[in-house]
Amino acid sequence: MIRDDIENKLISRFSPHFLQVINESHRHNVPAGSESHFKVVIVSDLFNDKRNVSRHRDVYQTLSHELDNGVHALALHTFTLSEWDEQQDKALHSPGCRGGSQQD
To answer: Percentage of the chain surpassing pLDDT 70?
Structure first.
């Protein structure tokens, strides 16, 4: 499963305090069972002293194979441990599909 591959690569690369990889493909206009749209919430010390752009670049680089082979979108929520302590009680919802969803 692509979701498992993503999770394993992120664990190996970032040694996260917290990691959540959610397949959100069902919210988009794709065939049932697709693994093309994911939300990633990751908390890592490797994000200390890095801006969001750099954090996202690191995640994209780690998942370059998946992005080149079927993963269409990643909603990234990257945090340091102190940021996560402040953020975790707030909802981290992904926006709806702008291309039209079969569920809407």
So the answer is: 77
Nearest-angstrom CA–CA distance, 104 and 41: 25
- Burial class (CB within 10 angstroms; exposed 0-12, middle 13-18, buried 19+) of 59: buried
Eight-class DSSP state of 90: S
The rounded distance, in Å, linking the Cα atoms of 104 and 95 is 13
> DSSP states of 9-46 as a string?
HHHHHH--SEEEEEE-GGGSSS-TT---EEEEEEE-GG
The answer to whether the Cα torsion of 7, 46, 39, 68 is positive or negative is negative
pLDDT tens-digit readout, 17-66: 999 999 887 676 666 767 778 999 999 999 999 999 999 999 999 999 99
Classify burial at 61, counting beta carbons within 10 Å of its beta carbon; exposed 0-12, middle 13-18, buried 19 or more: exposed
User: For residue 51, what are its two tokens?
Assistant: 């801006």
